[in-house]
Amino acid sequence: MKCKGLIFDLDGTLLDTLEDLAIAGNATLEHFGFPAHPVDAYRYFVGEGLKTLMQRIIPAADASDDQLLEYMNTFGKIYAKSWHVRSAPYKGIPEMITALSSAGLQLAVLSNKPHEFTKHCVEYFFPEHSFVCVFGQREGVAKKPDPAGAIEIVEKMGLVAGEILYVGDTATDMQTGNSAGMRTIGVEWGFRDHAELQNNNAWKIVSTPAEVVSYAV
Ligand SMILES: O=C(O)COP(=O)(O)O
């Protein structure tokens, strides 16, 4: 076995959630009378949590904290009804998870998506798989790229960071895994490109979920 555990990012790594996020984002903008963005622009808006998503899509860069809270609440209400409509695991992901679990590896999810939505997504899209931890962005825990969540998962797994592979699709993910002392795998099928993963010191960059298995088992 080449590692003992893996931590996965969610949006853009396990799940293609781009359209549902963009549709909810644009519906939020419409609700407040702001112009919409193309779906593809959300590849760069998503990744650092809901508050940052709102700061990036709302034209008034100086939105006050109270206003941001209102945007976040509205987005939350819209997304609560639609997070699963067009989202799905990327091709080969269910097989990858089955292969890693069958090999006896411990698996976890660490996302900057709000914690409740992260849990709903994992329960809905991967009902038959058991993850040691499923963490979204939680009150009182610094979001990625802070390694706090990743370090908490290492402890829950009873492993050391060097025994874990951290798999994600963005600079934030590579920074998180690297600063937690893990080997990082950047995935090319997600929201960002090869250069971003390389520039942020991905240990390996892969283009299929089967390659993740080959580095783990
Ligand atoms: O929703 C977000 O901001 C990001 O989620 P991720 O950390 O799973 O990519």
Task: Describe the structure using short key phrases.
217 residues; DNA polymerase, domain 1; 10 helices; 8 strands; globular; binds 2-phosphoglycolic acid; HAD_sf
- How many H/I helices? 10
CATH superfamily of the largest domain: HAD superfamily/HAD-like
Average per-residue pLDDT, rounded, comes to 97
**What class would the helix/strand composition place it in?**
alpha/beta
**Uncertain spans:** none
Cα distance, first to last residue?
5 Å
Strand order of the largest sheet: 5-4-1-6-7-8
How many structural units, i.e. domains? 2
Query: What form results from the Cα inertia axes?
Result: globular
- Unique ligands: 2-phosphoglycolic acid
Proportion of residues in helical segments: 40-55%
Q: Tell me the radius of gyration.
A: 17 Å
Order of helices and strands: EEHHHHEHEHEHEHEHEH
CATH topology of the largest domain: Rossmann fold
Please describe the topology of this protein:
Layout: E1 5-8, E2 15-16, H1 18-31, H2 42-45, H3 49-57, H4 65-82, E3 88-89, H5 93-102, E4 106-114, H6 115-125, E5 133-137, H7 148-157, E6 164-168, H8 171-179, E7 183-187, H9 194-199, E8 204-206, H10 209-216
Parallel strand pairs: 1-4, 1-6, 4-5, 6-7, 7-8
Antiparallel strand pairs: 2-3
Helix pairs in contact: 1-4, 3-4, 5-10
Bound molecules: 2-phosphoglycolic acid.
Structural commentary:
By secondary structure, the protein is α/β, with parallel strands linked by helices. The protein folds into two domains: 5-16 and 87-216, Rossmann fold; 18-82, DNA polymerase, domain 1, CATH 1.10.150. The relative contact order is 0.19. It has helices spanning 18-31, 42-45, 49-57, 65-82, 93-102, 115-125, 148-157, 171-179, 194-199, 209-216, and strands at 5-8, 15-16, 88-89, 106-114, 133-137, 164-168, 183-187, 204-206. Helix 1 crosses helix 4 (65-82). It is built from ten helices and eight strands. It is globular, with a radius of gyration of 17 Å. The protein binds 2-phosphoglycolic acid (PGA). Residues 9-12, 46-49, 53, 111-113 line the site of 2-phosphoglycolic acid (PGA). 2-phosphoglycolic acid (PGA) binds next to helix 3 and strand 4. Keywords: Hydrolase. Pathway: Organic acid metabolism; glycolate biosynthesis; glycolate from 2-phosphoglycolate: step 1/1.
